[in-house]
Please model this.
Amino acid sequence: MRTDLIKARIRTNLATGTLKMLANKSFLRNAALKVVTDRVKKSLRDYEMTEGSQSEYLAAVEAQYVINLINLGIRNLDRGYISKDYLKRVAETLGRGLWGESSRSREAAQKYREKYGINPPSLCVISPSQRCNLNCIGCYAASNARTQASLPYDMVARLVREVRDICGMTFIVISGGEPFMWKDGDKGLLTLAEEFNDMFFHVYTNGTLLDESTCQKMIKLGNITPAISVEGYEAETDRRRGKGVFKKILQSMDNLKKYGIAFGVSITATKENLPVLLEDRFYEYWFDEVGATYMWMFHLMPIGRAKDTMDLVISPEDRVKLLAKWEEMLFKRGYFIGDFWNSGAASRGCIAYGRPSGYFYVDWNGNITPCAFVPYYVDNLYDLYKQGKTIDEALWSDFFKRGRQWQMEYGYLSNPPGNFFAPCSIRDNYKYFREKVMTPDVKPEDENARLALEDPQYYEKMVKFDEEIHQLTESWWKDKLVKNNQPEQSRKEA
Model:
């Protein structure tokens, strides 16, 4: 047997063995947990000091995320909300894919590095269908039951196969529309997860279609975790998503807990639900009472239907309040909360544009965009495949390359790093995005995106927000880096 296969098998067995040890209540668990957490802290700090931005704060944030996720997972395992069988299947899936006895992931990443000179992105977000059974106010995807745009199953499967075999990905995010409504004949999301059982699928869903039958199929697969959209409590959720939706969500969560499937919640922050999001009670409810293992927070972006609901977008001052709450919940309460605008320290800034260890997005029309919240594209999956090309070639358009260049200039892997409390290219740096990142061949994803480019008032509001958020966060960010006294230097993309 090849030496690399032996080493990969050893890594897989060690990783799955550690997970099993943590899953069982015994005198060994606490010792194993301490070893794991100490190793997490050390490895992330070592990387940050040698390959990253040499920032103690970034290393601390990154480590805290991992530690919180482990602790919350163990707690929900002990509460019976996550089954040992599910955890075992997750470990086996990650073992085959992430640590890979076939070494496929590592070999694919190495070939990508040799071809392009940088590491590949780590994940791909796919919205296979725009259809949705809800009609939420301000939906970024402008989805409802009448929107019919969907990708054929074979095309999605080809895309997943390519990002696995060309980029070495083991993690796929499925969004929408409502992913559980995506069907092509008798094939759909669960078919995809079954076909690619060496990959893990994170699914953003409105949670209304997770009946017991679906949960039974998911637990057998063991490679899916759903993030269910909520807006707060019942009043906030039903106001934006429709009357009765909150109760359906709670029933779906009961189904997931019954079968032991780990789940999280996904929140969109708006002016209407902001007061709720600033209360500790909100996080205690979802983590401590309901049993979520993780939480994602998105700020309402003025795209899709939200372009016409700018009055719901939170102000820069409100965003700073959420930033303080996020940091408190992460470090003091031990919750896993990924705020996609305030948590830039966890990812060293913007992760779009197919950045190394980042991601890119493919929508229901096959448009390949830098991010789910950047509704502009150059390449389309249908056209790409008709030309006999593969997905990696779309990541090297001038549009994507300019985005990655901006990320480098902004401070990704630099010492000191840029202001990662304002990390987003389109939300926090819109003027630069329009002037330096967008290219002449860029096309809008839909009519709303086209109108946004032509509306001078939209431009003014976006730029004004950016100026204010930078003014409010620059000094705070610099205070976080006070321990970094080394001279400024930059590193090439890793």
Remarks:
- The first strand starts at residue 123 and ends at 126.
